[in-house]
Amino acid sequence: MKKEVEMICVSDLEGFSQEKYEAAKKTIGEFLKKYGWEYGDCVIEEKGKVWCCKAAAIWFMIQDETLHDED
Questions:
Q1: What superkingdom heads the lineage (predicted)?
Q2: Radius of gyration of the chain from Cα atoms?
Q3: What is the pLDDT of residue 41?
């Protein structure tokens, strides 16, 4: 059964930086794995826009916060 996931256009969010996004794709993937998501299932680039599931969108909102907690 395929999961339907609501997507958010994060490239339209205030403060979105295409340069930061490109440089941080690996970090986004690691962040998503912590919560059981795969990058390809959560982030879609289409027609110059970046769409993300809610879990990935959280990264864009807190990217300047400390993401690398010591477990």
A1: Bacteria
A2: 12
A3: 84
